[in-house]
Amino acid sequence: MIKLINPHKSRYILNVESKKFFIETYGCQMNFADTEIVQSIMTERGMKPADDAEAADIIFINTCSIRDNAERKVWDRLKYFKSLKTKKHQDKVVGVLGCMAERIREKFLEEKKLVDLVVGPDAYRDIPRLLAEVEDGRKAVNVLLSLEETYADITPVRVTGNGVTSFVSIMRGCDNMCSFCVVPFTRGRERSRSADSIIQEIQQLSDNGYKEVTVLGQNVNSYKADGVSFADLMYRASMVNPEMRVRFSTSHPKDFPDELLHVINERPNICNYIHIPAQSGSSEVLKRMRRPYTREEYLELIDHMTNLIPGVSLSTDIITGFCGETEKQHLETMSLMAQVRYDLAYMFAYSERERTLAHRKYEDDIPEEIKKRRLSEIIDQQMNIQEENNLKEVGKRHLVLVENTSKRNENQLSGRTDTNKMVVFDRLDFVRGDYVEVEITGSTSATLFAKPIRKSSIQEFYAAETTALPTV
Ligand code: SAH
Ligand code: SF4
Ligand code: F3S
Known about the structure:
By secondary structure, this protein is α/β, with parallel strands linked by helices. Among the domains are: 7-142, 3-Layer(aba) Sandwich (Rossmann fold); 397-468, CATH 2.40.50.140. The protein has helices spanning 7-17, 29-44, 68-84, 99-104, 107-112, 127-135, 183-187, 195-207, 230-240, 258-266, 283-288, 295-308, 327-340, 357-361, 368-391, 458-467, and strands at residues 20-25, 48-49, 58-63, 93-98, 117-119, 140-142, 165-169, 171-172, 191-192, 212-216, 224-225, 228-229, 245-249, 273-275, 313-320, 344-349, 397-405, 412-416, 422-426, 435-443, 447-456. The strands form 6 sheets. The protein has a 6-stranded parallel β-sheet, with helices on both faces. The radius of gyration is 24 Å and the shape is globular. The site of FE3-S4 cluster (F3S) has 13 residues, from helix 2 and helix 7.
């Protein structure tokens, strides 16, 4: 007897299982976390990771649209991937994922004919079906944004990485609509993932030997799910394993809750490091950027943070040459940065993005050379500040979590302090995942050098630190 089978389905399962995939990722940490979700969806269907694009049957590029140069890089890579589709490898599939997929959509297929598949950030569950369409000779697109999708039930597959530190996405999208920013258009509405699923994932990471998680969202302070606030979530996350560090990113200055500062203070494993982007030091520019705080309010918040958390390390994002930025306003950014003395800053020249309010309402009127000159001025100043800040660390003791072998010298290890500073020291018998107490012996603007003292733990190190405090 002939058994009837669905020809479409059987073909799809047979073909997909033998495929090897490779994902190249650009953009922010959330994009890297998304790649791990896609890896999970692919391996669940029996597909295997390939070592590189050349060896893969399916090449995905997870893209970023934040600035024009981020997109240009992707076009170059796509041209290269297309060149891999030689006569022998005609059936290689090339797909665009992420923010650029969402922004450029069908035009990817129509205009440039470089790709077979376009998948937006909320449609990753649909990838197996879309791949089947491609198998059938069709080009496939799904760029639907969702109000609910958080991929809460998908355990990310972490095929790369150091096995010590990991990202955990706690929310998706953004409702802030800063006038320069494309993210609300590429990532859709803000939504929070359930606290239980987040804690479960952190527990799994801890069970698998991970020692640090960074929880991610475009604005983590507005996290809210089933009555759980971000401060509550951080408290719960920190209780999973007292020997597991917890970091978070990014905090919007508009709503930094006091409870969170208290939780950071109380829990030794929540890191004393806050990424709190100012974007500009001029209240007028901030207004045009639709950042709902003034220079003064921002500085007050920074004061408040440094008073409540002694020794807290701060970092920022800054944009130079935003629409209408005068020389005086640029100098206000310089002076804000000089006043706060950030330990780290991510600095960018403004890049106009279609659909944003700035694109519709303001003229991108600062010439490229002025944007660049202002950018190099803030970078130069920031490098000096970092060098001075780091020099002050010499002689101090820190607890470093070992992440990797040093890039420059294989007899040395690298890891970060609680305050997120990179430290390099001699390997001795230490291994990845160890907490090592070190004494800082030297510094540059980007790195601290240290002498290892002993293997330690969060509880041991901070207990010693508290008892070492002078008693009054
Ligand atoms: N959600 C985060 C930022 C995510 S985007 C926050 O609000 O802080 C990361 C950084 O890219 C932004 O902080 C901003 O400094 C920069 N950026 C965003 N849009 C940009 C643009 N159009 N041109 C230049 N830099 C931009
Ligand atoms: Fe963009 Fe502003 Fe949202 Fe950050 S908060 S992602 S800068 S719109
Ligand atoms: Fe880029 Fe999208 Fe992240 S635009 S910065 S990858 S949210």
